[in-house]
Description:
The chain contains 9 helices and no strands. With 263 residues, it is mainly alpha-helical. α3 (78-97) packs antiparallel against α4 (103-123), α6 (152-175) runs antiparallel to α7 and α8 packs across α9 (236-261). The longest helix has 27 residues, at 3-29. The radius of gyration is 20 Å and the shape is globular.
Amino acid sequence: MDPVEVVVVTFVTLAGLAIGSFLNVVIWRVPRGESVVSPPSHCPRCDAQIRCRDNIPVLSWLLLRGKCRDCGAPISARYPGVELLTGLLFLAVTLEVGLTWELPAYLYLTAIGVALAFIDLDTKRLPNVLTLPSYPIMAGLLLIPAIVDGAWGDYGRAMLGAVALFAFYFVLALVYPAGMGMGDVKLSGVLGMGLAWLGWSEWFVGSFLAFLLGAVVGLTLMLLRRAGRRSAIPFGPFMVAGALLGIIVGPAIAGWYVDQLGV
């Protein structure tokens, strides 16, 4: 990378850390029907407003040793964890997608995916207020490179990929409603859109990895006796993880698989 690209990638990574801080607010407030804008961030125990100097992603948590400055209540390590995860994912996605017109779409998909994954882990649901607006937002962001670069074929494939993955999940929900919720169905189209823009190999890899990861984690939990056959395990995090892996390493995995087949 040339110096300008290094600066841009560094900026995107730092922006990812900051966005991760905002995602913590989204993860906590959206399921409770609260505004993500007001009131400002505050300690849930003593209600003291978080100072600007205590709101620096990751660093502030380390300097405060994971405690509220005012009352000393512990601050979960998940807060800097979400910030760091988002920053690293922004970096990985940027390095894979490149400084292109479609990059904003994939950074948005990454951010909304992180928020939805953690909300699903906490509440076992994927809020419509986040999933449904993601359709026009993703379609609009991908329309920019379609117009600028004339990538109408990619745009058409993205829309087809969204419909195909939505239909697949919808059928699964009809056949096995106990194992697949409508929130998963609504999320699938957004992920399918992002994966298919890059190519069908990314679409297949990202879609398949969701089920593979879900099966591995589910089996591991059962072996550790942390879950049973009837335990409800949220599938959204596996969908998001599979899609992000499909975006970042999808071509490499697809190429490896083709090599193994000797095609």
